[in-house]
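look at this one:
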Amino acid sequence: MLAKRIIPCLDVKDGQTVKGTNFLNLRQAGDPVALGRAYSEQGADELVFLDITASHEGRKTFTDMVQRVAAELSIPFTVGGGISELADVERMLSAGADKVSINSAALRRPDLINEIVRHFGSQVCVVAIDARMDARGWTCYLNGGRIPTQRGLFEWAREANDRGAGEILFTSMNHDGVKTGFANEALAELARQLTIPVIASGGAGAREHFRNAFLDGHADAALAASVFHFGEIKIKELKQYLHDEGIAVRNI
């Protein structure tokens, strides 16, 4: 079994890390630079930085903030938010990112995935999918969960896979911030249908939820925010717990 990854996520708005519930009711969680440094030191496997209002506000990701966070890290760093063309990818990689996360721009223009893969390699391209379970099934959303689309989670994930994306970052909007566990049935179906790694996001509230995402959801990595930001779960303790449960992890 490949080692499972634990990934803290910095959702950044107006220069501060924030966290909400079901993508709403945001509250401040600290300075992104300080948090990034702490997670790197605490044994996180990667760090994700999402400028969560960039697409909605029609602007680019804050390059200076990305540079400041990247300078403090010794782990892989993924940046997303407002990335819509190759020049944005180049800018983020030059600022210190190892990967970029694309979401709304890819849904609007799927060829962006092919372009990034062709110019920078599949390992750079993470396709993030924000989806909500509703009467139609799992529906994909644009602009930080604000605008529903006609695309379904599984068919869009398959297309991203086929276009060469390196990973899928799936966030369940139903589970986001609720802390009752990840969307394991959907994760397992993604794992069954795709040939690339799947990162679970939305719902972490206890150590057992990470175990279940790996064992039941067959996720390759699990991403969380508030449980790490507010000290509810310590990364080293989580990794030791997962190791004791028979799950391969790094840096315990």
